Amino acid sequence: MTETTTAAATGAATGGVRWLLRIEGLALFLGMTLLYGIWDGSWWVYVILFLVPDLSFVAYLAGPKFGALIYNAAHSYLGPMALMTTGFASGEPLTLSIAMIWLAHIGIDRALGFGLKYEAGFAFTHLGRIGKGGGVG
């Protein structure tokens, strides 16, 4: 099966679009990490919270459909952007810090090729198949 056929069957981005999405992810990671440093956030908080969105993997124990739903909720821009808006509106530094860390996490995931999940299983993402037989590169 060719990459084009696979992309058509899975809805995964390929070629230049895939690379653009991954570069955007890298820019988001670098931008949020730099902003967090300028913001003078605690690096201990950054380290502790950086992988928290990956706890959503546990939802896959209930099956791929539920797992994809929870994983995607934790890895879409909607939550952290709402949190960032709330943080700016309330002037709450911790809220802004959490939003920046969350966005940085999503950014590095996208840069590494880990996209939003399809219900077909954890390995099927909008950036292509990951893992055995799929690769991330």
Give the secondary structure arrangement, pairings included.
Layout: H1 3-10, H2 15-39, H3 43-50, H4 64-74, H5 78-90, H6 93-111, E1 117-118, E2 121-125, E3 128-129
Antiparallel strand pairs: 1-2, 2-3
Would you kindly provide a written description of the structure presented here, covering whatever features stand out?
The protein has 137 residues and is mainly α. It has one domain. The protein has six helices and three strands, in the order H-H-H-H-H-H-E-E-E. It has helices spanning 3-10, 15-39, 43-50, 64-74, 78-90, 93-111; strands spanning 117-118, 121-125, 128-129. It has a three-stranded antiparallel sheet with strand order 1-2-3, sandwiched between helices. A hairpin with a 2-residue loop joins strand 2 and strand 3 (128-129). Helix 2 runs antiparallel to helix 6 (93-111). The longest helix is centred in the first third of the chain and has 25 residues, at 15-39. The protein is globular. The two termini are 18 Å apart. 25% of the residues are buried.
